[in-house]
Amino acid sequence: MSMPSDHRMVFTGGLHGSGVTLLAEHLARHPEVSLLAGADAPGCEGQHMQSVYPRDAAYGGPGLFAFDPRAHLTEERPLCRVSTAQRLFEQWAPEWDLTRDVLVEKSAPNLIMMRYLLHLYPQARFVMVVRHPVAVALATQARHRDLPIQSLVAHWLHAHELAAMDALLVERLHIVRYEELVTEPERVLAGVGDFLELTGPVPAGGMDAHHCDRYQRQWRSYRSLVHPGRRASCNRMEQRFAERVERFGYRLGDFTALNPESTRLAAQGALSVT
């Protein structure tokens, strides 16, 4: 039977609405890569194809799960055993093409599970996708309308700050910004391909660079003068979270602001971008 050591295992993650599926689908076009199939699993996420650890729904689901301390899995959890690693691999294996060298598992909660997964699979590599917090909040709110924008942005910050601290202990980690993925797909996917040591390019067609504009227009409308109370609430939120968000290279009021100087601030609470 195929073993984890026979393959390069890759875990992709990022909050719901961050573009993880987009990245994974492009990786799956490469002849050396197999992405979990799992047609019956929501989003083809590996978390729904196993019974080893709880799914994010156990902690509130999208927009909430990272707030629950139990969702932050590390090497200190009781589930970290060699037998656990083999059991988990056996549950995923039927949904992979095991003739491929690179096996990709994607799940949103992987963002705050890197240390746990690394302990199970010490040679694993991690590719995390980061997207503007308001875009992620609006994408999440579209499906979960009871969650307020301010809470969703706070969740984005909490999840990414947890991931940032974990990243200090994860050597094989590559960060992809969604905004760069859709505007410079060839360059970004080439970087991912190099990181995964793939032979030949990762196909880059099918990106929609204008998809970012949709949420920026929605945000401008949301905080427009037509709704003065809402605008005041947005201003308070921007003031409250501005400094923490800027550590990740973003500004709440500007979807185009990416600060390259912020990409190596892991020690100060921001994900280190490789």
What does this protein look like?
The chain is α/β, with parallel strands linked by helices and 274 residues long. It has one domain: Rossmann fold, CATH 3.40.50. The protein contains nine helices and five strands; from the N terminus they run βαβαβαβααβαααα. The chain has a five-stranded parallel β-sheet with strand order 2-3-1-4-5, with helices on both faces. α4 crosses α5, α4 crosses α8 and α5 runs parallel beside α9. The protein is globular and about 65 Å long. The relative contact order is 0.16. About 3% of the residues have low confidence. This is Sulfotransferase. It comes from Nocardiopsis ansamitocini. Keywords: Transferase. GO terms for molecular function: protein-tyrosine sulfotransferase activity. Pfam families: Sulfotransfer_3.
